[in-house]
Design a protein that fits this description.
With 711 residues, the chain is an alpha/beta fold. The chain is 42% helix and 13% strand. Helix 9 packs across helix 10, helix 10 packs across helix 11 and helix 23 packs across helix 24. The relative contact order is 0.10. Bound molecules: pyridoxal-5'-phosphate. Pyridoxal-5'-phosphate binds next to helix 7, helix 23 and helix 24.
């Protein structure tokens, strides 16, 4: 793509360091430790204060600091190496995995998602779906997949979580400074920011366009907060997942129809469309309309579009699928169906879920009907989805309902902690990172001496606790938070204690407070004189989710209760950065949702990769991950009666009988040898299998390569 963009400018940069500006404008640095060091070593304090955002840092650093670096031979050597690696990376082209396509076929893949979790400096995510999309496009960059991504620029994506003194969650809106973020304006020929009108939708909506360079992949972001729009339309992309149904419909119109129009305006020919969840499904309509305008009948166009569309569903909860009332669909689409060459009834019929035809236009039902390739995100989730959507195939037995799966994975260079990576570099083979989806590579973990692995892990635990204490200190010193709030934030944590991590959105089905089920039994575990445990919680409740906020309040209040011994911490404002610390530094990753509600889950994969074993219910990815040696599993079978009581009792039992004794059984040198064995098993059995590299290759082989052939 060679559209014009307006790069951020860094007037303070000396010519010798001009490449820092280039590096700052491409998120490649975020998954390359050496590139991060290039920024960090300019000035550690400024790096920290910028929120690890090189754009912001380079704008704010005094010119003397930069000039000093430009005269420092050590710094320049590292800088030159990183810059040349970056250039080499960017120059490499061609994806061998997609080489077998017929001549003349455009192979670009358009990827649409309502959220992207890429880095702490870009607040365009709410949770797992976003990180999946972010990791996906990073891996596509590494594998050279010709993919173009589209999403939203949410200036108010940040909802800072603050706990009130009564334990109720408050949200503070923090607006993104677009000019100090690693994003660029896409420009039109007249030099102003490119603005595109969403076609055929009345009243009109305009979107201004931004671009994020994610290695070799371009991510285009749509922004309706522009003067050309009516005030009520400016809010469309202000924040994620708006509650109001009409505004939400307009948001999805912008994502799907606007997104497809953007590709057209930029001249990006794509042969495959990949929808990451149903929010973007209207893009299918634009692809059909385009072909109908070109002379095809609706049926021909529909078939061709269907055969080249991939749809990934992520939601095993019926209420999680968007359904728009028919009257709203009519309001916005009345000039649209004529352009498709069909009438109103035919149009609305496309979104009917036969199981519940009265409810409205179901985005998932539509996306499934209009895509030849549709998949769930774990084996278990595929089974759940087959039941959910069976009514779309009334003549097919449920086991044969054609919903396939590609289990999620995580981007290894993003989530593997750099110190761990250095340790692996020392004992693995050269070039191992390039081959990290090969399970054999990970057998080399056995070469790492137990005490080396343990020391590295222990160091990461200290780092986690230091970071949490620093947050508490700032709440105390800057915000004047009261002392119990500061203690609840983790000021009393102790790195020598078995540390359980629990971090996820506070949706009720995640049962975040399950471990409090039997408070007396929990207190005994926390306060054990010789072998105590501590638990670190983090996570936000959706602003409209009061039941979720009540669970959070309970945990927060318990963390301030002296009976819990200062062994429970609730750390505010879970996001990408805190997630990094947690998945690297805790000893055990706890996950106990109500089974079949977790489509996959990815945070546990991040922990497993860093040698943090799971204590998890059998659901989502753990059904495929657990092998009896690499962590602990509960809820193997269906239980009648009180499910919470049963699952909580299993958690206590596993802790009391297996996990705690194993952790505290240490050698003379203080290394828990049995524990390290589980850590090694966790890395060895999960790292390759749940890597984004394995995942992206599966999407290519199963879907993209097939779809490209049906052009
Ligand atoms: C990985 C990640 C998630 C997704 O985790 P789940 O296991 O699906 O809960 C959510 N938030 C952040 C910040 C993450 O890094």
């Amino acid at each position: 793509m060679n559209e014009k963009i307006q790069q951020n400018e860094f007037p303070n940069l000396p010519a010798r360091l001009a490449g820092l500006g280039e590096l700052a404008e491409n998120l490649w640095w975020s998954w390359n430790p050496a590139a991060r060091m290039i920024f960090k070593s300019l000035n550690r304090q400024a790096w920290k204060e910028s929120g690890h955002n090189p754009d912001k840092m380079l704008k704010e650093l005094p010119v003397e600091v930069l000039q000093q670096a430009a005269g420092n031979a050590d710094y320049l050597r590292n800088y030159d190496v990183v810059l040349s690696q970056f250039k080499k990376y960017m120059e490499t082209r061609g994806c061998p995995l997609l080489d077998n396509v017929p001549d003349g076929v455009q192979t670009a893949i358009a990827y649409l998602s309502a959220e992207y979790g890429l880095h702490r400096s870009l607040p365009f995510y709410a949770g797992g779906l976003g990180f999946l999309a972010g990791d996906y496009i990073k891996e596509c960059s590494d594998l050279n997949v010709p993919l173009v991504a589209i999403g939203f620029m949410y200036p108010q994506g940040y909802l800072l979580q603050r706990m009130r003194e009564d334990g109720w969650q408050e949200n503070i809106t923090d607006t993104l400074d677009r000019d100090a973020a690693p994003i660029s304006r896409v420009l039109s020929d007249d030099g102003n920011q490119l603005v595109v009108k969403v076609p055929l939708i009345e009243p009109p909506i305009h979107v201004a366009l931004w671009k994020v360079a994610v290695g070799r992949v371009c991510l285009y972001l749509m922004d309706t907060d522009s003067e050309i729009n009516e005030p009520w339309n400016r809010e469309i992309t202000a924040r994620l997942y708006i509650g109001d149904i009409e505004q939400r419909l307009r948001q999805e119109i912008v994502l799907g129809i606007g997104g497809a129009e953007i590709l057209d305006v930029l001249g990006i020919k794509h042969s495959v469309l990949h929808l990451n969840e149903g929010h973007a499904a209207f893009a299918i309509l634009e692809r059909i309309r385009d072909r109908v305008q070109g002379g095809m009948t609706f049926e021909e166009a529909f078939d061709q579009v269907r055969n080249t569309s991939v749809f990934t569903t992520h939601t095993p909860v019926p209420a999680g699928h968007d359904v728009f009332p028919f009257y709203l669909m009519e309001k916005y689409f009345n000039s649209y169906w004529p352009a498709l060459g069909i009438d109103r009834d035919r149009f609305l019929q496309m979104g009917v879920h036969p199981g519940e035809s009265q409810s409205g236009f179901n985005m998932t039902a539509f996306a499934i009907k209009a895509s030849a390739y549709h998949n769930a995100v774990s084996k278990k989730h595929a089974e759940v989805s087959q039941h959910m959507w069976q009514s779309l195939w009334p003549d097919v037995p449920v086991d044969n309902v054609p919903i396939d799966y590609v289990t999620n994975g995580v981007h290894v260079p993003t989530w593997l902690e750099p110190k761990m990576m250095l340790l692996f570099n020392k004992y693995f083979v050269p070039g191992w990172l390039e081959d990290h989806d090969n399970p054999v590579i990970w057998e080399l973990i056995e070469k790492i001496p137990d005490d080396d692995l343990w020391k590295t892990h222990y160091w990461l635990k200290i780092k986690l606790i230091d970071a949490i204490r620093e947050r508490s200190r700032l709440r105390w010193a800057k915000d004047r938070a009261n002392s119990s709030t500061v203690l609840a934030g983790g000021a009393l944590l102790d790195p020598s204690i078995l540390t359980i991590g629990f971090a996820r959105r506070f949706a009720t089905y995640k049962r975040s407070d399950l471990i409090f089920y039997d408070t007396e039994r929990l207190k005994r575990l926390l306060n054990d004189r010789w072998r105590p445990i501590q638990i670190i919680f983090a996570g936000k409740a959706h602003p409209a989710d009061d039941p979720g906020k009540r669970i959070l309040q309970r945990i927060f209040n318990d963390s301030r209760n002296p009976d819990m011994g200062g062994r429970i911490a609730f750390v505010e404002d879970y996001g990408e950065q805190l997630a990094q610390y947690l998945v690297h530094g805790v000893d055990v990753w706890l996950n106990n949702p109500l089974p079949s509600m977790e489509a996959s889950g990815t945070s546990g994969m991040k922990a497993a990769l860093n040698g943090v074993p799971q204590l998890s219910i059998m659901d989502g990815w753990w059904m495929e991950g657990y092998n009896g040696k690499n962590g602990w599993a509960l809820g193997h079978e269906e239980v009648g009666g009180n499910r919470d009581q049963h699952d909580a009792a299993e958690i206590y039992r596993l802790l009391e009988e297996e996990i705690i004794p194993l952790y505290y059984n240490v050698s003379e040198e203080g290394v828990p040898l049995g524990w390290v064995k589980v850590m090694k098993e966790s890395i060895k059995s999960n790292a390759a299998k749940f890597s984004a590299r394995r995942m992206v290759k599966e999407y290519i082989q199963k879907y993209y390569a097939m779809a490209v052939k049906s052009i």
